[in-house]
Amino acid sequence: MKTGAEQISAERARQVEVEGHDDGHDSNHRDGELAYAAMCYAAPCHAFPNQDFPALWPWDYMWWKPSRDPVRNLVKAGALIAAEIDRLQRMQERGA
Fold this sequence. Notes:
Number of helices: 4
Helix content: 40-55%
Number of strands: 0
């Protein structure tokens, strides 16, 4: 069984390779969208009663793809956090 860190790393690779959400794509999310999306996936499913998707979800509804498996949702959240960390570090390296 893969560790949580291994699952997050694999999900981040999938986001890049399958979804095309690479560094260039992620750099366009400058208003905390990656972190907000991670928050939404990290929250327990019962945190959003009577809602199709969380009010803080930063993108179009079509991108909200929660799983019934809470571990899978946490893996997605972790990969989004990793993407946001990478984005912030790129900005720091560029002096922005």
